[in-house]
Every structure is written in C-alpha cells, then in structure tokens.
Amino acid sequence: MQDRNFDDIAEKFARNIYGTTKGKIRQAVVWQDLTSLLASLPQRPLRILDAGGGEGHMACQLAELGHQVLLCDLSGEMIQRAALLAEQKGVSQNMQFIQSSAQEIGQHLAQPVDLILFHAVLEWIAEPQVALQALYNCLLPGGALSLMFFNANGLLMRNVVLGNFQLVAPEVRRRRKRSLSPQYPHNPPQVYGWLEQLGMEISGKTGVRVFHDYLQSRQLQTQKFEELLALEQHYCRQEPYVSLGRYIHVMAHKPNLKDGL
C-alpha cells in the first residue's frame, strides 16, 4: 500500500471536484465550519498549515483574511496550481508552498501552527494514524485541526442507491489507477477514536453532501442547486445526516498546556 500522488490526474481532479456542484457544496459547508473554528482561536493573524492542500482554494480564502498559510502537497503539479491561484487572488505574500507529504511536513516548519487543515487526504494514505500523529506534533497547544475524511457509511449508501451491490463488501476496492474513488474509506467512530487517542477534544462534526450524492436525478443537482445547498447547510450538523455525509468534517482542539495544570 502507498499514498496517492495526484500528478497524473491533476486536471481531472480539478474538473471533477472543484468545478462541480458537489465541490461547491463541499466548499460552502466546510467554510461555514471554518468561520466558527477561526472564532475559537486567537484573534490575530494565524499560522496555518494546509496539509495536502491540492489547488489551494481554501488556503487562498484564509490568506485573504490576512492569515499566513503554508500549503504542502505530495504532488508537484498541485503545488504549481496552488501557487498560480494564489497569484491570481493576490495573496501570494501570505502563502508558502512546499512539496512534501503531510507526514514529513514537520521538518519544514520553523514553529508550530495554530490551525491545520487536512481535507480529503486521510482516505488516500496507507497509514492514517501515522499522518495524524505527525500533524498533531505540528500543532500548538490550544490549536485546532480541521479534518475532512471520506465516509465509509456514505460510500455504502451511495453504492446501494445506485444498485452497485457488488461494491458494498468492505474488501472490494476499485482498481482503476486513474480513479478519483478514494482508496481507504474510513469508519467515523474509528477516526474519532484516533483523535481521542491523541488527546484531542472533538468540538464539532459535520456531514458534507448529506443529500446531493443520493439524488436519483443528477439534473436536480444543478437545476435546484440553491434549494439543495440550503437543505445541506440546514441538516449537515444533525444526526443521522452527519453520519451519512459522503465526507465528514470533524473539528478538534489540542489541549492547552494550562488545561493540564
């Protein structure tokens, strides 16, 4: 098993993820969470790490707010795309770009960071707990982790809705090399357990795309997008919808040193 590098499908990734209704919903829902998360952190320009940041859309939004953002990615192609986007947005002065895996980014940091984004990366990593430990070590006491992962529950539900019963068995994995279907879907309680084992306190959970991907008519995804987005944003933090999201966004804080006194 090995971690996924997107050099070979960067264009396909951008077209099928960022340029779609599912990408817009993901961006809108997670940005709501991040706005709340930022309010819980010191009210100053923050040091932020976007680990596996891809094209850097979220990183650029944070840089626009005046925060200092370091984006790393295993893919050199993604790094180039993120740097170009930052230049287009006029935020290059607030950003750094390093080609590195999340597991090794600590050696490139001069000091710990206030906030780490780790979005849609965990499901492409062969040893997820190793990556989470490495990122935990990069976080300041009292700092926050914004983790979004591919939900095994959502994958099962989607396959059943489509009638792909042969793909429901957990041992079945898509084998197409250029597929955008994540390699290692995760069971939510297991991921929550990993965070708690690190000593992190989970402060919020959000389902990302709790309705969109289950619609029988794809036309509704575009024709009724505004209504669909409103429904997503209304229900995404309520159960059972959280646990049925195609992705789950979980927010957690590293204990403050004062808390242990």
From TrEMBL:
Its EC number is 2.1.1.-. GO terms for molecular function: methyltransferase activity. GO terms for biological process: methylation. This is tRNA 5-carboxymethoxyuridine methyltransferase. Gene3D superfamilies: Vaccinia Virus protein VP39. The lineage of its organism: Bacteria, Pseudomonadati, Pseudomonadota, Gammaproteobacteria, Enterobacterales. Signal peptide: none annotated. S-adenosyl-L-methionine binds at R26, G52, G53, D73, A102, Q103, H119. InterPro entries: Cmo5U_methylTrfase, Methyltransf_11, SAM-dependent_MTases_sf. NCBIfam families: PRK11036.1. The keyword Methyltransferase applies. The keyword Manganese does not apply. It holds the Pfam family Methyltransf_11. Residues 49-146 form the Methyltransferase type domain. Keywords: Methyltransferase, S-adenosyl-L-methionine, Transferase, tRNA processing. Catalyzes the methylation of 5-carboxymethoxyuridine (cmo5U) to form 5-methoxycarbonylmethoxyuridine (mcmo5U) at position 34 in tRNAs. Belongs to the class I-like SAM-binding methyltransferase superfamily. CmoM family. It catalyses: 5-carboxymethoxyuridine(34) in tRNA + S-adenosyl-L-methionine = 5-methoxycarbonylmethoxyuridine(34) in tRNA + S-adenosyl-L-homocysteine.
